[in-house]
Structure formats: C-alpha cells, structure tokens
Design a protein that fits this description.
The complex is a heterodimer of chains A (about 475) and B (about 200). Chain A has 15 helices and no strands. By secondary structure, chain A is an all-alpha fold. Chain A has a single domain, classed as Formate dehydrogenase/DMSO reductase fold (Up-down Bundle), CATH 1.20.1630.10. In chain A, helix 3 packs across helix 13, helix 5 packs across helix 6 and helix 5 runs antiparallel to helix 7. Chain B is of the alpha+beta class. Helices cover about 40% and strands about 15% of the residues of chain B. Chain B is built from five helices and six strands, in the order βαβααββαβαβ. Chain B has a four-stranded antiparallel β-sheet with strand order 2-5-1-6, with helices on one face. In chain B, helix 3 runs antiparallel to helix 4. Chain B is elongated and about 80 Å long. The chains are: A mainly alpha (about 475), B alpha+beta (about 200). Chains A and B meet through helix 1, helix 5, helix 7 and helix 15 of A and helix 1, strand 2, helix 3, strand 4 and helix 4 of B.
Chain lengths: ~475, ~200
C-alpha cells in the first residue's frame, strides 16, 4: 500500500474527486478490506478496547440481574419523574441508530456515491444502537416477565394492547425499524460474505461464511434482482427512518405536559437523531480507519462530508431550540413559558447549558474548513455532540420535574445504578461493534468496487469515442 | 451435444463452459456476442453489478416491485384489521386459538380511531413490504443454495474478487463443445474451462 497522500477534498468541477485512493485494481481493494478480518490476530487496540467493553457489558448484565430481583426502585425514578434514565437512554440510542439508515437509504436514493465506504459500519452501528435502545423500555416495564403484554398476543385474560397510545406505536415502530435495518444490513453484506468465503483459508471459515453468503455467486441475473431489491429496501427504509423518531417524539408530544406538548417535536427529533447519529459515525470511523489502515476508503473527503451533515443538522437542532422558546412565549400559555424559562434558569439549568454549548455552539465550528479537516478537532466536536444529545433528552424528560402544580414538584437525582447502566450500555454497544469489525466485512467491498472509475465498462475509452 | 453428456454415474458430468475475463469492458463485449448468438441458459458472474450488463444480456426487468407493492398493501390491510379487531370489535374469531375483540373506550374517542391507527398501519405496511422484498428476491434467485457447479472451480473463486466470467450451460439447445468453445475463444478470454456437475 503506498502512503502517498492525495488530497481528495479539493472541489474541481472538471473532474470527480476520487472516492478510493491509491488503488487502481479490484484485487488490491479486496485484499486491503479483507485484511481486517483475515489478519491472524487483531491489533492490540482491539484487545484493549474489547476487554474494557466486555467488562462494562458484563457489569450491565449484573445490574440487570439486580434490577430484575429487586425492582425498579433501585433507579432514581421517583414521583414526579417516573421517566428517568431508562427513557433518556432509549431516545438517545434510537437517535444514534438513525444515521446508519440515513446513510444506507437516503444517501443511496440521492445517489451519494461516497456512502459506500461508510454504510456498512454505520448500518452495524444502527443495529447495535437499536439493541441498546430496545433494552431500556423493555426493562422499564418493571415486571420484565410481563413484557409480552406489549405485543398483541392472544392470552388467557382476553386482553389486548391499547392502540390509541403512542407508547404502543413505539413498540411497532422500533421493532419494525430493527427488522428492516437488519435485513438491509444483511442483504448488503451477502456479496461480501461470498468474497470472504472464497478467500477463506480454513474449512471452518469457508463453511460459516458459505452458509451466511447463501450460495451467492455474483450471477448477473441475481445482481439484477438484487439491485432492484436493494433500491426497494432503500425506498421503504427512507420513510421508515423518518417515522421512527417521529413516533418516539409522539411519546412526549401527545401528552399534555408543558415542554412536551408541541408540534415541532417530530421534525426536531428526527434532525436531532441524524445529528447525533452522524457524530457517532465519526466517533467510530476516526479510530477505526486509523487502527485498521482504512484511510484509502474512509478518506478525508468522507469525514468532511459527514462533518457538513453534522453542521446542517446541528443548525436545524439549534433552530428548533430557538423556535421552542419563541412559541412558548408567543403561545401565551403560562405553563409553557414557565417550563422553558425553568429549563434555562431553573434547577437543572446546568444540563440545559451543557446541551446548548455541545449541540448548538460546537457544530458551528464546522463552518471553518480547517476544523472540518482536522482529525483531532472534529473528534472533539463529535464527542461533544454525543454528550450534548444525551443531555438534550435528559433536559426534555426532566420537564416532568415541575409541571402545573407546585405542590407536586420534585427534584430528580439518578442513582449510581442509573449511571452505571448507561455506561454499561456503551459497553454492550462497543462489544457488538468490535465483534463486527473482527468477523464481518467492515466496508461494503462490492459497492466500493462499483464506484471506482475502473468499474465503468467505458473506462478505457477516450472521451468522444462512440459508446458501445 | 449428446456425446458430451456421459451417462456414467462415476464420471462427473459436464455442466457448462466458463470463460474468464479481466475487465468490465470485455465482459460487456462477450455478453453481447453470447446474447447475439442466441444462447438462453447462460450467465455472467461479476464481483459487482456491472452497469448496463443486464440490458446487454437481454434480462427483462424483474416484477419484484409489483409483488412488493401487493405485499405492502397486504401489510396495510392487516395492520388496519388488527387494530380494528383488538380495539373496536366484540366478536369471536378462530386464529389457531379462539380470540375475542375488545371495544376499548378511551376518553370518549370514537371506536374507529383512524388517525391514531395510522402509525401502526404504516409500520406494518413497511414491515410486510421489506420482508417480502428480501424473501422474494432470494426466492426468485434460487437462493439460498448450498451447492452450485461454478463454486467447485478454483478459478471461479475470483468471481467475487476481480474477475468476470461468462458461463454457458451444457443444457442450452445451442450448446456444442467445439462451436461454443471456439466462439468464446474469439472473445479474447484469459482462460476457458469446463465446469462439472
């Protein structure tokens, strides 16, 4: 692999910027991506992070056991804040998930060819984030053994779920989202699993990859239906991704609590979800490309494009914060106005200002090209956005603290179990992600090949020559 | 063609002939020739979908989107029926077990709460459409398949890496060992090999 650095961030209207650097044939592309899975041992950084992630995930399991034995009283959830950390974490993780589907579906429909280098692991991130997200409402029901009441399953009580409740819409939205994301991820991976099968050095690997690649043999008659199916999945996932966080926002907006009962919630939640998800994509992509030497595929141009999306969605989120305040005043509703002044200057004002500085101010730094293209600076901004978006959900949920009647006001304090369960969910997420990097194709190999200029059948012809 | 197909069971039967190419341009050229020669049981194998190759091969547009549309419609209807039955009806129905609807009265809202049912109807539409997209695509492609004659060939391993293959099956009525091989040779392949079943 040559180490020549080509700057592919320059905008030249006369020619397309290359998306794959230092490669002009398909074999070397396969070689370099498969090296991540085929190396006899992963890098030291993998072991270190895997051990840490595994310990945290183990801690989560222990805390879950403690929770099931003892009950939800071990959390800080208390009247009037019955929705504490579990719902904050749920909305946070579902939001993270949104970037994966945005990259794989919406950017696909818009023919953004740069998505090919990052879609695979962004989709993986989506699935693992939705697993973490699904965990929290599941354990928040209290009596976990009755969680099946969420689904319309015939039972001896003749009891059905109540479909006029947004909480039930959420069950359907999130489970559909998980299923469709998983299908999308897996279908995209089938040709690459076939590549790993064909390169397998041991019989065991060949059998495992062979089973999961479903006997894919790159037949053009298959590719034809495959591409059509992929397009259909993208077209179905696009409205789905917008609906999921809208439905999540209905959990809040359909109630009558000041600070929740606003019509801006669905678009504001969707923008925030994409914002946080892209920040997480960058947070994962920057170390991964460094450790596994994927800089020829996840180039500076890719990172810069992600930063531009963070800037756009960050500005939308900032605008939504402003509009919330404006409408709180303009509506003339006293409770609404109080809720917002209380957010900014009340008992949890510190959380509000962490949110504003991380989500509104920090992404604005991406107006500067230098910051957009500096790895350490963008990494810091993305971490700040991750923190800020968690606090956004925290601030929203804490509207419960002080609603209409001062006699029922309260102050929410999380317990150490709340905090360690949040950290433990990061452990679960990272464990799954590190296993994914080790055993599955981390970049969509066949898609990357298809966006190389060599993939065009007319590549060798000069301009003006008759096209075949 | 008949003398090629040996009926002895201990001998591997020839299944097809395979020509290997190294660029998308060459496979396009080859596919054009094979299609023009009138073969029907043949295929191209490529590491990524080569743009325009399906048209050159004469592959007709798949009816997958139409089928997915009806799958979505089914999901839509089922989502509506599910909510109507469980929340706004009172009759018994046999669905493996006997189930009875329950007419929930929530804050005096009408039984047929159309707007409140939209999210679940939407989600079930998407779910049915997406699952059937994948299932039908695999079904129509004859996948999953644990065995295929091409996958036995060592050279064919590069079909998922950087080589492009034309495979013509022996069962094609036009197939003749000599003529087909001669035609493929003219197309300037890297190699030509027989595939065995």
């Amino acid at each position: 692999m040559s180490s020549v650095t080509i700057d592919n961030t320059v905008e030249d209207p006369k020619q397309r910027a290359p998306l794959v650097l230092n490669h002009d044939d398909f074999a070397s592309v396969t070689e370099e991506i498969c090296r991540v899975n085929e190396a006899p041992k992963p890098p030291k950084a993998w072991y270190v992070s895997f051990i840490i992630a595994n310990m945290l995930a183990g801690l989560l399991v222990l805390l879950l056991a403690y929770l099931f034995i003892t009950g939800v009283g071990i959390w800080g959830n208390q009247n009037p804040v019955m929705w504490g950390f579990p719902i904050v974490n749920f909305v946070f993780w579902v939001g993270i998930g949104h970037a994966g589907t945005l990259i794989s579906a919406i950017l696909f429909l818009f023919r953004q060819r740069w998505r090919t280098a990052i879609n695979r692991f962004a989709e993986a991130m989506t699935i693992f984030a939705v697993i973490c997200a699904g965990l929290f409402p599941g354990i928040h029901v209290g009596r976990i053994w009755l969680a099946y009441w969420l689904f319309p399953i015939p039972n001896q009580m003749g009891m059905w779920p109540q479909f006029r409740s947004p909480l039930l819409w959420d069950v359907f939205a999130v489970s559909t989202y998980f299923t469709v994301s998983l299908l999308f991820w897996y279908v995209g991976m089938v040709p690459d699993l076939a590549t790993l099968r064909d390169r397998a050095t041991s019989r065991f690997k060949a059998i495992i990859y062979g089973l999961f690649s479903l006997g894919w043999r790159g037949s053009m008659r298959h590719w034809h239906r495959y591409e059509r199916a992929y397009l259909l999945l993208a077209a179905l996932a696009t409205p789905l991704v917008l609906s999921v966080h809208s439905v999540v926002s209905f959990d809040f907006a359909v109630s009558q609590l000041p600070g929740w009962h606003t019509t801006i919630f669905p678009p504001y939640f969707v923008a925030g979800a994409i914002f946080s998800g892209f920040a997480m994509v960058n947070t994962l992509a920057i170390p991964s490309r460094q450790i596994w030497g994927l800089k020829n595929f996840i180039t500076m141009r890719h990172l810069e494009n992600i930063n531009k999306i963070i800037l756009v969605t960050g500005s939308m989120v900032g605008f939504a914060y402003m509009m919330e305040f404006f409408i709180a005043w303009y509506s003339g509703a006293h409770y609404e106005a109080f809720a917002f002044i209380n957010r900014a200057f009340g008992q949890h004002a510190w959380a509000y200002w962490i949110m504003v500085s991380c989500n509104v101010i920090s992404p604005q730094l991406f107006w500067f090209k230098k910051i957009r293209r500096s790895i350490p600076l963008m990494f810091i901004v993305c971490l700040a956005v991750n923190v800020g978006m968690w606090f956004e959900r925290f601030v929203i949920v804490l509207s419960l603290e002080q609603d209409f009647l001062p006699s029922s006001w309260g102050y929410f304090t999380p317990t150490w179990i709340d905090i360690w369960m949040l950290i433990g969910s990061f452990g679960l997420f990272m464990t799954l992600f590190l296993l994914f990097i080790r055993f599955l194709p981390v970049i969509a190999i066949s898609e990357v090949k298809a966006v190389m200029p060599q993939a065009d059948p007319h590549h060798d012809q000069k301009h003006g020559e008759a096209k075949a | 063609m008949s003398q090629l197909v040996t009926q002895q069971s201990d001998h591997p039967r020839p299944w097809g002939i395979m020509a290997e190419f190294d660029t998308p341009a060459k496979i396009m050229q080859a596919a054009k020739h094979v299609h023009a020669a009138g073969y029907r049981h043949w295929d191209c194998h490529t590491p990524f979908p080569v743009h325009g190759l399906d048209k050159v091969m004469g592959i007709k547009p798949t009816i997958l989107p139409v089928m997915v549309f009806f799958a979505g419609l089914t999901g839509c209807t089922l989502g509506l029926i599910l909510q109507w039955f469980t929340n706004a009806s009172t009759f018994d129905m046999w669905l493996i077990v006997f189930v009875r609807g329950y007419d929930f009265l929530i804050s005096g809202k009408p039984m047929m709460s159309g707007p409140a049912w939209i999210p679940v109807i939407f989600e079930s539409t998407i779910l049915f459409a997406a699952v059937s997209t994948v299932a039908l695509m695999l079904l129509m492609n004859g996948l999953p398949r644990l065995y295929h004659p091409t996958l036995k060939n060592r050279k064919f391993l590069r079909a998922s890496e950087d080589r492009f293959f034309v495979v013509i099956e022996v069962r094609d009525p036009q197939f003749s060992q000599d003529q087909t091989e001669a035609m493929l040779k003219e197309l300037d392949p890297i190699s030509i090999e027989m595939l065995e079943d």
